[in-house]
Design the sequence.
């Protein structure tokens, strides 16, 4: 298994990658912080990965994506999985006051992902195999006043992935949209925990299974699917008055 | 649901509410040690039984995210990992490569940091000593932001204070230790029934010669004539040419879903369990081969088994009685426990060896150790444990802080005479509920009168259950 992980130091990516490491996968890890990346790489190496390459990079810099993908493919050969796991949880109040912040959040959570997906999709189409797995969010299913910048960015990626899935299915390529709800990670450390929070370990396991089973759209944990179905079906004329 | 509620200890007693939780996600993340009037204590999985892992009204540094393995040499068995890595994770990686933990307690769900901070021991203490003996080095973060690589030769003061130091000397970020080589995941084990405490001592003297692992389960309800009857269990890692089953069927774990109603655990049901175990445990052959996890971690099959004790929780008591008093001392302890009718499922006896740990506050020392649970029945239980403490103290023994929720400051200081060497090495911003109880509180100048409970003893000292921050 040759696996490219973008955002390898995210808590969810770490937990998912452990399963691949145990299977002896070749891993190409990309993340911004060099020291954290080194810790994650050594962990995956000890847990059984055959080969681990560290590639420190800020994925918000779109102009280096092309080169990154080339280096990854050069190192790994064919890609069995490309896993996009990076992102930031935007602070809605800050974004509301600042165009710069809003666009910055969009760059990280949406346009940079779309840039990578565009490049990767073309590669997967040629390969005629593999899995493109991307973490979006339940927040992308419907816009709400409390986090619509984050939600819109994730929602755009989800729709982009729908299109890719439709395009790449005939080529035998799996496009997997992963929609976690609240996960207890550094990204949500400042939010008081409630029973809806999932732990990264179980989320990682679910993602590993979803990749293995070549699934399409996965809510994690699964109880989010009925919840989001309900939420998306509330008529807008009521929904707009809710404080969500 | 209050997220703080999960930060309790394994015995669920005393209940604690930390002022705040600060997760530590990365070794290099700055930790905020600057909140005024706050004390700090590392916390991972809360497997200490009493209050040594609690910091009531203080800050807990949750290090359970520090769980990355850093290096493992398959040639030498030297293993390095972050402090929140569990023994279970380590075994999963190293056993298939022919290595095993040098020392392991009865659960694999503990962190490496906790194993060092409590200087844990296992069924091989007579051969291998404590976990701390096998630690080569670790990195300690102090509240000043300074980081110290500690080993026998570097920062030796912090090294010996941190091993068994109950998390009070700073945050252990990572540790490196030596594994032991094995031929496979199987343990050759033998069980022998014994009918009296005296037999335990003779069995143990023999078995410790040829077995890596020895332990005895005893029936703490059995009467005078059969006092200390039980099952003696030995184990050795499989040999090169041991014939073993071709594969291990993965164990099924069962979870206790909620806290049991307290009436389920009464002296009749507990007594019955003990009697049944004594008589029925020989359905299986006396010599057999079993996977390491059923041998070392029988209770791990029952996730959250602490919930069986209901919402009042339970108290563990583990003491060691050194020679020459061990036979008489253990007999006297068992006598008191039997007469109190408060004992529980699992009472364990083991002979500790003479190998000494570098840890200043390390609990194990040569002698006989007795461990058992007591359902929390309030004052009755606390009174009994005070009596046991007096006996242990009189025998120059010690009680295990990792399992304690109530020992008095006086007892602590007599069990751990090194505490005064240890105290200056504590991080000034670190504290725990346990430490405030046993070390920060001033001893009463005159012992208040508690009715004498034990004929040959001096007046027991006042035992204060201080739960808050002593300011």
Sequence:
């Amino acid at each position: 298994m040759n696996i490219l992980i973008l955002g390898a130091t995210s808590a969810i990516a770490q937990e998912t990658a452990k399963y691949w490491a145990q299977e002896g996968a070749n891993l190409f890890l990309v993340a911004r912080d060099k020291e954290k990346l080194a810790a994650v790489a050594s962990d995956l190496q000890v847990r059984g990965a055959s080969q681990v390459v560290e590639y420190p990079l800020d994925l918000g810099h779109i102009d280096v994506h092309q080169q990154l993908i080339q280096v990854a493919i050069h190192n790994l050969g064919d890609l069995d999985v490309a896993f996009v796991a990076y992102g930031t949880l935007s602070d809605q109040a800050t974004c509301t006051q600042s165009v710069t912040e809003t666009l910055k959040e969009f760059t990280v959570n949406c346009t940079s992902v779309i840039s990578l997906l565009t490049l990767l999709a073309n590669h997967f189409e040629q390969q005629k195999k593999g899995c493109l797995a991307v973490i979006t969010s339940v927040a992308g299913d419907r816009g709400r006043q409390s986090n619509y910048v984050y939600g819109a960015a994730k929602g755009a990626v989800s729709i982009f992935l729908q299109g890719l899935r439709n395009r790449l299915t005939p080529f035998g390529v799996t496009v997997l949209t992963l929609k976690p709800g609240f996960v207890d990670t550094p990204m949500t450390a400042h939010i008081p925990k409630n029973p809806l929070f999932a732990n990264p370990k179980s989320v990682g396991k679910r993602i590993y299974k979803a990749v293995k089973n070549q699934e399409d759209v996965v809510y994690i944990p699964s109880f989010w699917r009925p919840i989001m179905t309900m939420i998306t079906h509330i008529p807008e004329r009521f929904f707009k008055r809710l404080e969500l | 649901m209050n997220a703080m509620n999960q930060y309790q200890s394994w015995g669920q007693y005393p209940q604690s509410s930390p002022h705040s939780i600060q997760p530590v996600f990365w070794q290099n993340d700055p930790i905020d040690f600057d909140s005024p009037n706050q004390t700090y204590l590392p916390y991972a999985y809360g497997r200490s039984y009493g209050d040594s892992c609690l910091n009531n009204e203080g800050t807990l540094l949750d290090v359970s995210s520090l769980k990355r393995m850093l290096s493992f040499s398959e040639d030498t068995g030297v293993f390095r990992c972050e402090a929140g890595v569990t023994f279970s994770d380590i075994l999963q990686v190293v056993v298939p490569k022919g290595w095993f933990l040098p020392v392991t307690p009865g659960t694999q769900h503990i962190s490496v940091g906790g194993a060092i901070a409590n200087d844990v021991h296992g069924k091989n203490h007579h051969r291998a000593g404590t976990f701390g003996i096998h630690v080569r080095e670790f990195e300690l973060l102090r509240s000043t932001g300074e980081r110290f690589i500690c080993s026998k030769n570097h920062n030796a003061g912090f090294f010996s204070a941190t091993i068994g130091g109950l998390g009070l000397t700073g945050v252990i970020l990572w540790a490196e230790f030596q594994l032991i080589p094995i031929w496979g995941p199987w343990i050759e084990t033998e069980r022998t029934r014994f009918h009296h405490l005296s037999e335990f001592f003779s069995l143990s003297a023999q078995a410790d010669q040829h077995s890596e692992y020895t332990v005895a389960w005893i029936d703490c309800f059995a009467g005078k004539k059969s006092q200390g009857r039980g099952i003696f269990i030995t184990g050795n890692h499989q040999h090169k040419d041991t014939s073993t089953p071709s594969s291990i069927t993965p164990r099924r774990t069962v979870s206790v879903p909620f806290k049991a109603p307290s009436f389920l655990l009464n002296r009749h049901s507990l007594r019955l369990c003990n009697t049944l175990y004594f008589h029925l445990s020989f359905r299986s052959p006396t010599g057999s081969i079993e996977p390491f996890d059923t041998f070392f971690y029988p209770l791990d099959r029952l996730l959250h088994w602490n919930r069986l004790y209901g919402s009042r929780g339970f108290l563990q008591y583990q003491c060691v009685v050194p020679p020459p008093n061990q036979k008489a001392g253990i007999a006297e302890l068992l006598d008191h426990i039997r007469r109190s009718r408060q004992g529980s499922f699992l009472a364990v006896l083991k002979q500790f060896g003479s190998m000494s740990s570098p840890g200043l506050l390390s609990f194990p020392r040569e002698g006989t150790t007795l461990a058992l649970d007591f359902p929390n029945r309030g004052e009755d239980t606390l009174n009994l444990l005070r009596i046991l403490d007096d006996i242990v103290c009189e025998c120059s023994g010690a009680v295990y802080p990792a399992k304690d929720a109530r020992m008095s400051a006086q007892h602590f200081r007599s069990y751990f005479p090194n505490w005064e060497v240890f105290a200056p090495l504590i991080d000034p911003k670190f504290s725990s509920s346990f430490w405030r109880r046993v070390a920060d509180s001033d001893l009463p100048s005159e012992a208040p009168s508690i009715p004498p409970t034990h004929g040959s003893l001096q007046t027991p000292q006042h035992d204060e259950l201080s739960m808050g921050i002593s300011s």
